[in-house]
Amino acid sequence: MDFSGEFEVGAEPKAVYEYLTNINKVSKCIPNLYKLDIKDDDNFSASFLIDVSAATESLHIEYLSHLNAKMDFTFLEKSMDNVKLEGKGRAAGTSLKITIEFQIKGLGNSSRVSWKATFTPGLLLKLFGEKLIRSVADDIINDLVACVQKSIKA
Q: What is the pLDDT of residue 64?
């Protein structure tokens, strides 16, 4: 599943780069994060909840309204104009993978950030269906990106 978008922030590219590559800062934008383990400047583990309550009500499996996820993240690229992060892990006993890339372009005293994300939901796709998983992934990714955008401005 692929997602993409762009936003502008009132910060120079260096400030955007420094935010995106600071694990302590960018990890605060992972929705429902409850545990963070920083291994080094390029690697960290995150445990968080995935809210699937909208789907579980209609399927009458409310007890599965939140799934625990644990993922290991690695920066695949860290350059002033491109930051790429990959996460691999598990939720509900199935493997997950997400890659999110931010391209940074200077606009004088501000920056345009184009982003794209690829999410591979594994067997969650069969459990909940593509429509629901796409909706949940879209919400999580857009919440993360909105948080990044807002936090860079702060």
A: 62
